[in-house]
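Example record

The entry below shows one chain as it appears in the dataset: sequence first, then structure tokens.
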Amino acid sequence: MQKVLIANRGEIARRVIRTLKKMGINTVAIYSDADKDALHVREADESVYVGVSPSNESYLKQDLILAHCKNLGVDGIHPGYGFLSENAAFATKVQEAGITFIGPSPASMQVMGDKLEAKQAVKKFNVPLVPGVDRAIVDVQEAKEIALQVGFPILIKASAGGGGKGMRLVESIENLEEQMRMAQSEARSSFGNDAVFIEKFVSKPRHIEIQVFGDTHGNYVYLFERECSIQRRHQKVIEEAPSSVLSEQLRVKMGEAAIAVCKSCNYVGAGTVEFLLDANLDFFFLEMNTRLQVEHPVTEEITGLDLVEWQIRVARGERLPKLQDELTIHGHSLEIRLYAEDTFNGFTPDIGTLNRYRIPFGEHIRVDDSFEEGMEIPIYYDPMLAKLIVWGETRSEAIARMLDAIDAYQVSGVKTNLDFCKYVLKHEAFTSGDFDTNFIKHYFSSPKLVKTAMQEEKTALEAAVETLWNNLQEQNKREFISKPIHGAWKLMVR
């Protein structure tokens, strides 16, 4: 593999370019009108224009991307995450063009891309499933009968869904018909497929995912877990590795279940198997993401591995660099997703110019970003500005380091979620490890009250600092007056 095109943008494009350069592989970036001056474009060896700013007219134009690959002699495509990364049709076109797709096979992608098909596949390998049905439901009356059998509350979920789209929580039969219609409508709008299914709603659910890898030689490994339970609108905001609640025995059990999921679809490459963990520490298969995850850096931090390099080596037909008994966990890592959004107004995205943008530096602090001071935040794409990652010997050390890093991060011109992330990291529920995916519902249901409390805390801290400073000045003044004046200083006083 001599030249790789990164079919993506932003921080993940920069992240992939970094590893490709380290491996001596030439890089090609693609860009839209909004990204013509983007950092990933500057850093790649070559770059090509793919269209106007909306993604469906640029980053999703499969045939144009492949035409550029042909013209530039590209022999590998890395899809990053999002956009075309889990598009089986695109992966098929890449293969047919004689180019290596740095990811799983289209067949594996197809199986795991449909939640119902995925459930049926893993069921044969005895992977635990949430009580419910593993087939599409279209009839409301049938849905009511199933819901009564499963027991309320239930979740109605889009079969082809993701990111919380096409998902509805139903707590009573009176609301089922309306919520089902809404879920189907959103699923049809988002995925072109209105198939839905029903699952039992898991109480106090924690979102635990297992990083997995498979190669073309039949080897599989799991690179331990990530805790992803701090979410807004079913999308992750804070991730950590390892989880604070998994015992070594449970970790192995979940890891082996994740490998079984890989075997159920002959998986090759990097993937993530997502589980729900209930209050009794029983776990259930949720879905498999057939790509590199946004939060992969926390796994890199605790394993000391470069997962993008692993992806490339596996895509070249090499064996996995390490087997299971060679993998160990070192310390603890946290990641926050820095979003341009108004957390006190429903986490709504914000746009504008980064009037000030200064990232934190220090030992075991990592920033994966795609912006610099003076840049505009485009409205066309995900509002994530950066990922802030830290590592510590212990979880408490990692939390303290993250809080310091947040304080050192300077962003103005757009609203961000830095204050919200700081609030979460300092909350007793988080520091104790006693939290689940309902954190926002339980502790952030009144954003205005939280904002007021945070402002009061900030004012009190500023007052304490000012008092301390005044006391130190007064003490230094007294000490200066009480000391005898000698030499040149005596002459100056005269």
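Notes for this example: Residues 485-494 have pLDDT under 50 and may be disordered. DSSP finds 17 helices and 22 strands in the chain.
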